[in-house]
Amino acid sequence: MKEIPTFDSLMNPLLKALSQLGGSGSIDEIYEKVAEIEDIGEEILSVPHNPEKSNQTEVAYRLAWARTYLRKYGFLENSSRGIWTLTQKAKKEKEVSPEKVLKYVRALDKKEPNQKKKRAGANIELADNESPEEAKVWREELHHLLTKEISPDAFERLTQRLLRESGFVQVEVTGKTGDGGIDGKGIARINGLMSFHVIFQCKKYQGSVSAGAIRDFRGAMVGRADKGLFITTGTFTPAAIKEATRDGAPPVDLVDGENLAEKLKELNLGVQTEMVEKVSIDRQWFLNL
Q: Are 19 and 86 in contact (CB under 8 A)?
């Protein structure tokens, strides 16, 4: 297996990826494009950063560091919605010297006494529009709770509640053994005018879901629903994401651990946000599922 690229070696591929994406892109789009440009294999992309605390892969972790450094260097900007954009400086200069970026940012950090010093082995935000403390505390706690403390049955009930709160009707959990990974079904209603029959799979997982898992799930859903929904506490490999949207195949929507956390927070399902934007986890809510 090749070595995992260092975060500074990912800086120029990251800039190239954003350029090919039209100058802006989401974190997932950047991740997929960098993996394509650098020809990073599935084996490397599946390596977790810290499976006990988050669903983030090591490559995603290092790309987050690359984004942080390039933002401080003046080559990137990011919105509160997690969209990253090339600055005019980046569009003009195209590439950077990683050594100069490291030197500049580290010198900048030393000039800011109120900012915690960062190093390659430190924890960083899982979502780039959140503070490191906020992301570290509630996301890591939620990830551990979902993957380690609640049962598979409870996770299925959580998924059922999540879909109902999101507007689905007739949501049923089946969970039959040998049913191709299908855990349940429901009907997604859109503005009260249109509806789609959806089959879903919910997987408690600390690693990355492969393209093979998506193909197996799709094989089980063909002829039984309009769409498929795959929810996991882990991540999806770029190949899995491509497989989910492959032309000519029934579509499968993907919800990874990060999306799941955000949706639970949005719907206030076991995740409460106080007016001061302090996010806390109601452990008992999950354990009572």
A: yes
Could you tell me which of 162, 144, 155, 137 has the C-alpha nearest to residue 55?
144
For the segment 110-120, what is each residue's pLDDT rounded down to a tens digit? Answer: 876 554 444 43
Q: Spell out the long-range contacts of 46-52 with Cβ–Cβ below 8 A and sequence spacing 24 or more.
A: 46/207, 46/208, 46/210, 46/237, 47/4, 48/206, 48/207, 48/208, 51/206, 51/207, 52/144
Round the CA-based radius of gyration of the chain to a whole number and report it: 20
123 close to 139: Cβ distance less than 8 angstroms: no
3-class secondary structure, 229: strand
Strand 184-190 and strand 168-173: pairing?
Answer: antiparallel
Number of domains in the chain: 2
Q: Cα–Cα distance between 30 and 67 in angstroms, integer?
A: 10
Q: Are 75 and 86 in contact (CB under 8 A)?
A: yes
Count of alpha carbons within 13 Å of 79, Cβ hemisphere only?
8
Question: Which is nearest to 206 in space by CA: 11, 1, 48?
Answer: 48
Between strands 235-236 and 252-255, the pairing is unpaired
Residue 135 lies in a domain: no
- pLDDT tens profile 48-69: 888 888 888 999 999 999 999 9
Residue 68 domain-assigned?
A: yes
Domain range for residue 175?
A: 146-287
Contact 232, 263 (CB under 8 A): no
What's the distance, Cα to Cα, between the start and end of the chain in Å?
41
- Longest pairwise C-alpha distance within the chain: 62
Q: Write out 262-288 in H/E/C secondary structure.
A: HHHHHHCCCEEECCCCCEEECHHHHHC
CATH number for the domain that contains residue 201: 3.40.1350.10
pTM of the model: 0.67
